[in-house]
Amino acid sequence: MPPQPPSPPPEPGAARPAPEPARDQERIGERDLAHWRTRAGRSFVALVARTVRWSGRVWRWSLANLGLVLTVVVGGGLVLAASALFAEVYDEVVDSEGLAALDQPVLDAAVSSRTPAGQEWVTRFTDLGGTVGMPVIAVVIVGVLAVRRRSWLPVVLMGIAAAGSVLITLLGKDLTGRARPPVSLAVPPLETSASFPSGHTLNATVVLGVAAYLVMLGRTHLRSRLLVASVVVVFVIAMGLSRVWLGHHWLTDVIAGWLVGLAWLGVVVTGHRVKVTLERAERAGQPVGKPATTARPASSRATGTRNGEHDT
Q: How confident is the model at residue 292 (pLDDT cuts 50, 70, 90)?
């Protein structure tokens, strides 16, 4: 039988399979982290790619690492600016007795529901979000993931997230200088730092949010991902409410902790996705400004898309 001639190369612009499947740290379930579904997302990645390609001539880092650093630095600056704006808005809210008018009634309800046993157990729980408990939780989770996956990624992402969370908390407290609830309504041990935002709440949101994200990387079973997400959400909500129940924070302090924490968590996750996208582009040998995942194979069976679905 005569030898078969080599298959012709694909025409320019023709759909072709990805050069390699997404790795475990590049996927959550069926969601490829390097695939940006919206035009705004793709434009954002292209902008970061062009920027790091220029800065890469000065800094001898990989473009993917530069993309991660650029995203978290710029995003962190935006979160800090938003925190400052939040502080200004907060002052206006207090003056007009808007949302802050909920603080005293909620605290009064918490005080009326306390029992000696409840105070003991809630205090033990809230200590998990303190300066000792939360770092221990983060180190244990990151250590296990780093060893099992033989990767520095958990250490890097958690380090960035934790450092930013502490900085945002300290800056927010300095900007507002809000007094905590009256000592007579608080359960010991008492704290002396400013009240706004709640550091326990903000740090728990960020640290456990990043931990959940890292745990879900590579997991294909929906049930396990839902379990991880549910545990973290319940823990974070309970941590915030425990601060109000014990009289250590006002309700608006906790709300700010949740919102700012989620914003910073989103920045860290976006930074990782940018890193994954640029690494994929480099492995595929494509221009960095045009990640390999922006073009998907034509076969819906190969990509797992439903019939009739198309990316826009």
A: very low
Tokens at residue 118, please? 């409840």
Asked if residue 256 is part of any domain, the answer here is yes
**How many C-beta atoms lie closer than 10 Å to residue 234's C-beta?**
10
Q: Which pLDDT value is given to residue 16?
A: 43
- Distance between CA atoms of 114 and 122, rounded to whole angstroms? 10
Residue 311 and residue 95: Cα distance in Å, rounded?
48
For 240, residues 6+ apart whose C-beta sits below 8 A from its C-beta are 198, 200, 201, 204, 254, 255, 257, 258
Q: Give the number of other Cβ atoms within 10 Å of residue 149's Cβ.
A: 15
The CATH code of the domain that includes 185 is 1.20.144
CA distance 278 to 63: 7
Q: What is the pLDDT of residues 147-169, one digit of tens each?
A: 988 888 999 999 999 999 999 89
31 occurs within a structural domain: yes
Helix 133-149 to helix 153-176 angle (10° resolution) is 160
Could you tell me which of 174, 200, 167, 198 has the C-alpha nearest to residue 267?
Answer: 167
In the chain, the number of structural domains is 1
| Surface-to-core class of residue 265, CB atoms within 10 Å of its CB (0-12 exposed, 13-18 middle, 19+ buried) | buried
